Amino acid sequence: MTRSQRPGPNLQDPEKFAREFTEELRFGQGVDFVRASDTDLYMALARTVRQAMISRWIQTLDTQMARNAKVVVYLSAEYLLGRQLDNALLATNLQATARHALASLDLELDTLREFEVEPGLGNGGLGRLAACFLDSLATMAIPAVGYGIRYEYGIFQQQFNEEGRQVEVPDSWLRRGSPWEFPHPEMSVNVGFGGTVKHNGTERAVWTPDTNVVAVPYNYMVPGYRSDAVNTLRLWQAQAAENLDLNEFNSGDFQGAVRTQTEAESISKILYPEDSTPQGKRLRLQQQYFFVAASIHDFIHNVLPGDFDLRRLHERVVFQLNDTHPVIAIPELMRVLVDANGLGWDEAWEVTRKCFAYTCHTLLPEALEVWPVDLLEELLPRHMEIIYKINSRFLEDIADAFPGNDWRVRRMSIIEEHPVRAVRMAYLATVGSSKVNGVAELHSKLLRERVLPDFAELYPDRFTNVTNGVTPRRFLKLSNPELSALITYKIGNDWVTNLEELRELDQYADDPKFVATVGRIKHENKVRLAEVLKKRDGIVLNVDSMFDVMVKRLHEYKRQLLKLLHVVVLHQRIMDGESITPRTVIFGAKAAPGYVMAKEIIGLINSVAATIDADPRARGQLQVVFPPNYNVTLAESLIPAADLSEQISLAGKEASGTGNMKFALNGALTVGTLDGANVEIRELVGPENFFLFGMTEEEATGLRDAGYSPIWYYDNDPVLHRALEAISHGDYSGGQRFAYGHVVDSLLTDDPYMVLADFASYIEAQNEVEKVWADQGLWQKMVVHNIARSGFFSSDRSIQDYLDRIWHAPSVPVHK
Prior knowledge:
This protein is of the alpha/beta class. Strands 1, 2, 5, 6, 9, 10, 11, 12, 16 and 17 form a ten-stranded mixed beta sheet that branches. A six-stranded parallel beta sheet has the order 20-19-18-21-22-23, sandwiched between helices. A three-stranded antiparallel beta sheet has the order 13-15-14. α10 crosses α11 (329-340).
């Protein structure tokens, strides 16, 4: 009997589950019930559930390797996984069993699940998308492995001080350990930095690093839903090659003795270290090379057969670059093929280009990474040589394709010359990949026409679109169980893996009983969220009001300021004696620690919230709350409770968005611009079921080109004028005049994301929201249409698009 054939414990029987749980408690945690802490109980539960997946995991790996399957390797600096227990219970169909087994021991599943700490291994949509994609790949039985970094502290924990300003504290998600990971120090990889390069007269070179860091892998299981497949997420932790200088320690220099260890471990210490300093930039580049070098080595040496011909590497793997963070993998693979394995340059370049595909996640030029040449030459001298050669060959191709056009050659160079010599990583990714995709129809169009137009002209067949998606397992089945049960009752359970089946619900939009049930479930979800926030943050919500929600990363282009101006307008209407629709406005966002304006906006939001909370006239009509530390766990309670989804970025600035999809799928109506995936959401749910406002991308570009003057809107719109004056004069900052004056000044003098230009249209759309809300029959009918028509936004569909358009990796079924 092989290892994959050995049966794991049959845990579907509650008695057997309870027995395994008590054994894990005793032999895994080393305690009995009398001495067990809540953490002990949670860890034992997690390890019990983990047992149910291990045999499937091993069998999945054995099956895929036996089939010589092509593997999707997802390279991402972020993975926002969320809590693992509920997803594991769902994948193993152990939810009811675990609940009954624990009840027999006088324990509650709902109590124990609260002791799980969410891994903060991502910053926002990029990391959550990566986690959704891993879920879909396993559910669809596609051989895949995700690679990333095991950040010791991850994204920071957000707190607010007495003034309502953001304070960052370390996110110690590993302080109790993680029952979901499997460390494998015996499979560690050495990753080098710095040093010298010697040439021997051929294309090959010998790179001798002067510093080595050890990458230690930690494996996580990624179970598929109803597929029996369990894929792998492998995260790398950095350690020093030599942990302790014993001579220095014995001489009394205790800090010096561990200096090398400290420097090495800093690479995987924290997600996205502040990079406004040279040291921060250096550390970020080290992080990026560290994880891609370890990952490429791991795949070649631990996944492929020992005698595999690397000239056929593209037949066995596609490396998907999730944004520019892992793009240094392109010269790294060239180094491995040419220097370590003796392939000729042209042969290696052809293999490399076929192996890589690049997803661009932005339209903002400042978000396209560039790395100073000096820094690359210091840390990765051989890679800089390779980049120079890639660029030289590429510029020759441009000169041949566009003879006499020297300006185009300079414009498209991977190396930019001003303000400092630097490598444009998006250009390197485009040149070194077989496919480049945007993440929504509009984004992909603008990517071709505005961001990388020269490359799209040179490589017209290289560009494609894959609209993002979200996993219905976590963001409907798990997070909204009552609605999920209703859907299953009406159309069966196949929607969980074929979300387009939700379209069958459209016929019930005119069924008063069904519509009323959907409305009741929404209200119950609001009550549930209220309980969560009261326990979590001491926030008391009015569950009979409209829940108007804006949760996303705090960035000026997402225009939280536009939402805040609307809040001020609503408050001023109340002060004028008008009645408004009772509304609870919920913000959730983190600002990057070095992003001063974003942090000022958070402070202003909290100041406005406090002012409104202290005004008795607003009680029962308007409430603004900003729970700190918005994360996946809170999202799972908040999204099902939302009535109105705010997707209000300036058209042409948001690549896609996935929060907009989650809200629509859970029955929130969208107020939004024609930006990112909003365009596709509106097309699918119907214009009549979407609150549209604002300029189109073409109109915004035209206005900017014509000479945008934000002060004109201030002078000519009395509602806007009054709102900005109130903020500037201290009405919402305890009487402190100009406490947030520079926020107002930025809007009046620059307003890069045209908040003031779209203000009047936004207010008009919100007025329409109130009119529709007053007709609850119509509102709930629109809700049903949104749910029924959101099936396109499944991450399963996204993955199928990647398979069809880019990866061409067949499914490998795994059977018990």
